[in-house]
Every structure is written in C-alpha cells, then in structure tokens.
Amino acid sequence: MTKCVHFTGGEATWRNYLTLPNILKEFNPGLKGYSVGKGEFLAPNSHMNVAFPVSADYDAYRQAQFLVKKMKKDPDVDFKNDWKLITMFFGANDLCSGQCYDKDGTTPLQHSKKLQKALDYLQANLPRTFVNLIPVLDVSVSVRVKRSFMCHMLHRFFCACFHQRGDVNEMDQITQLVRDYQTAEQILINSGRYNKKEDFTVVIQPFIKLFNAPIDKKRQSEEVIDISYVTYDCFHFSQKGHALAANLLWNNMMQPVGAKSETSVDSILKHFVCPTAERPYIFTANNSAPPDHRDGRDRMRST
C-alpha cells in the first residue's frame, strides 16, 4: 500500500504530491508523523499513520489506542506540548460488508457509538489535539463512474453487500443508509462532547458528501466523478483523486463550522482557501463565530 501519496501522506512536497501534510509543511517545515514511501501500517515509514486495509468501525478504538501508544514511545514527539492533527475516516467497509453479516451491529447508531468510543479515548489521552472527522463515503460512487470489466469483477469482493444484486432497491437503500450514518456522526459532534477542553476538539470536514447519490431516482446513476480520479477498482482514489481530496479537506479546514463547502471543484487547485491575517487558524466550533461576536474563548491555532 502506498501511503505516501494518500491525502494524509507526506512524500516530497505539495508540488510533487498534493497532500494535507505537504500543505501544512508550508506553514510548519518541522512537521512530523506523516507516512512516506510504501508499506503497511506496521512498516517503520508509516510513522503515525495507523490505518490498515479493510478497517471497519470496530477497529477505530484499537487504532486510537495504537496511535497513542506510538506517540508516547516516539522520542521525536513532545507528547504534552506538540500540537497533533488526526484525520479519521471510517464506515465505508461497514456499508460494503457489515450489512451482509451483522445488520444490528452496523446500524447508524452503532456507527456513531464506535466512533464515540475511539474519540472519547483520544480526548482522554491526547493533549493538544485537533481531529478531522470525514463523514462516511457513499459507496454507491463505485457504480457512478465509467466502470471497466475489472471494476465489475472486483466490486463483488470489495463491496459485496451493495453489489450482490445491484438493483434499484439496493441503490435506494444505500443512498438513505449513507445519509443516516452521516446524520449520526453530525449528532455526535454537535452534542458538544468534544468542545469542552481548550486543547482538544473534533470537527466534521464534510467535503466527502459531494459523492452522495441524489435522492431523486432518475439521477442516481449520473456520473459523479471522472474515472481518472479512482484506481482500477473504481472505488479507491488514484493519486489524482487523493490530490483532490487533500485540496477539498484543506479548504474545509480553512472554512468556519457551519459554512464548509460540500461541493467539488472542476480541477485540483482551482480553488484553494488560504488563512487570512485576521483569522490565521484552523476553524473549530468555538472559534467560527465572526471576530466581533467572539466571547473571548481561546482560539485553537494550527502550528
């Protein structure tokens, strides 16, 4: 697995690979923790990237524990004083596979509870931490691209629940279930559970919702993205797709909570949001109000 060109990887610079860490390096050349090169999650060059293939919601807590353990052991990490940026992205495999074998364990409520368990652990154990929570991906994106024969074959393995019949009813069901998952995520974060500390927060970055299938049945088969943005399996992002994801994720981070974009751009870097002199920080629920409406609470800044 090539994690270095994933939108959370850090190989080379943004001019070579547009990724979130490579963007952040422009503001903090001393940034560390991102993965480089090739390798699985146990490879040394994965560094603080603890994601592993085919992860499901129940893996979130275990990965959170592993991440905290790695940070505490790393001599290059000032655990108490370094600011930490974590990006979480779960749920697609629960939609793709869990629905076939454990419907009760893969409901929207269970999705939320498993994320909460992991986030609660991070909040209790990681000081100075900002968590990006990316909503679950609408896995029907896999049929809303120009699919090759290889895509048709692989989808029966990668996303068996959705592709076992592939009829209209399944499309309707997955379209609604994705939205129910996303609503459960929003309810969890909007509860304020992670806005109580000055040095920890979780913010939903909703750019991934641009892939949500329309509710209108007549439009559910419309092409959502060019095939060049996905790999040969028509499911995972290609390098170009990861560059687009990094661009959109960064834009969301630079947009106030409540005013974050959920639409795509025509091309990578066509729209790139920069911090302003007035508000040179990553937005949180507590610092998103206009400056003249602020109540004096500390701002969580990117460092």
UniProtKB/TrEMBL annotation:
Gene3D superfamilies: SGNH hydrolase. Its main location: membrane. It catalyses: 1-(9Z-octadecenoyl)-glycerol + H2O = glycerol + (9Z)-octadecenoate + H(+); a 1-acyl-sn-glycero-3-phosphocholine + H2O = sn-glycerol 3-phosphocholine + a fatty acid + H(+); 1,2-dihexadecanoyl-sn-glycero-3-phosphocholine + 2 H2O = sn-glycerol 3-phosphocholine + 2 hexadecanoate + 2 H(+); 1,2-di-(9Z-octadecenoyl)-sn-glycero-3-phosphocholine + H2O = 1-(9Z-octadecenoyl)-sn-glycero-3-phosphocholine + (9Z)-octadecenoate + H(+). Keywords: Cell membrane, Glycoprotein, Hydrolase, Lipid metabolism, Membrane, Repeat, Signal, Transmembrane, Transmembrane helix. SUPFAM superfamilies: SGNH hydrolase. GO terms for cellular component: apical plasma membrane. GO terms for biological process: phospholipid metabolic process. It is found in: Apical cell membrane. PANTHER family: GH22081P-RELATED, PHOSPHOLIPASE B, PLB1. Belongs to the 'GDSL' lipolytic enzyme family. Phospholipase B1 subfamily. Calcium-independent membrane-associated phospholipase that catalyzes complete diacylation of phospholipids by hydrolyzing both sn-1 and sn-2 fatty acyl chains attached to the glycerol backbone (phospholipase B activity). Has dual phospholipase and lysophospholipase activities toward diacylphospholipids. Preferentially cleaves sn-2 ester bonds over sn-1 bonds. Acts as a lipase toward glycerolipid substrates. Hydrolyzes fatty acyl chains of diacylglycerols with preference for the sn-2 position and of triacylglycerols with not positional selectivity. This is Phospholipase B1, membrane-associated. It comes from Cinara cedri.
